[in-house]
Write a sequence for this structure.
């Protein structure tokens, strides 16, 4: 299953069968290397929150695990970014830009390989975000991100969606080695990306965005 360039799809994070967040993005390319998405500033999104409206990072995980939830709609308030989902690999790579639209850094999101779905009018990719991440600067120096949150959640194996800490870290180290060597996609590819004219920002999440997870 491949998606046509320009198609609007939904990229979703799934936590134990629930949608953790959903983001709209347009397909830049989809080939044997993987899927490249563009998420524009102000794109419609949804995030899982507690009944009190608090996100996962705003409460201790022990409290989160026993809370009730709802999906709150909003807008992507970060800079425009690219997301590359390599075929069969347990991570994605995001290109972040600064306020002037210039490339600022790569962000390696450690996650289970995505599962695609296509309902005809709408398609998407569902994955399980494994929370630990790596920030890689243009000079290819790097640092782990969210290590404290990762450690906190691992202490609750009955409620956490990550079962193998060692596998997550090993994937991160493998991607770090690739980055340090300047290998694709850390070789300057897509660092100067500009979206085609006419790629408007949708006014709202498309119908079907909250369909049952594919994984």
């Amino acid at each position: 299953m491949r998606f046509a360039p320009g198609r609007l799809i939904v990229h979703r994070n799934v936590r134990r069968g629930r949608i953790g967040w959903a983001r709209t993005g347009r397909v830049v390319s989809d080939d044997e290397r993987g899927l490249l998405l563009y998420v524009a500033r102000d794109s419609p999104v949804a995030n899982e929150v507690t009944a009190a409206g608090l996100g996962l990072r705003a409460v201790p995980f022990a409290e989160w695990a026993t809370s009730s939830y709802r999906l709150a709609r909003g807008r992507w308030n970060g800079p425009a970014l690219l997301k590359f989902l390599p075929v069969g690999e347990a991570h994605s790579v995001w290109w972040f830009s600064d306020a002037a639209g210039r490339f600022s850094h790569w962000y390696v999101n450690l996650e289970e390989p995505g599962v695609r779905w296509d309902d005809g009018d709408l398609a998407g990719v569902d994955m399980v975000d494994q929370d630990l991440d790596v920030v890689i600067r243009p000079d290819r120096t790097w640092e782990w991100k969210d290590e404290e949150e990762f450690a906190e959640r691992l202490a609750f194996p009955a409620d956490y969606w990550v079962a193998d800490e060692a596998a997550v870290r090993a994937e991160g180290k493998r991607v770090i080695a690739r980055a340090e060597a300047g290998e694709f996609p850390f070789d300057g590819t897509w660092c100067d990306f500009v979206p085609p004219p006419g790629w408007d920002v949708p006014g709202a999440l498309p119908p079907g965005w909250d369909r049952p997870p594919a994984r």
Remarks:
- The helical segments are 61-64, 147-154, 165-180.
- The chain is about 15% helix and 40% strand.
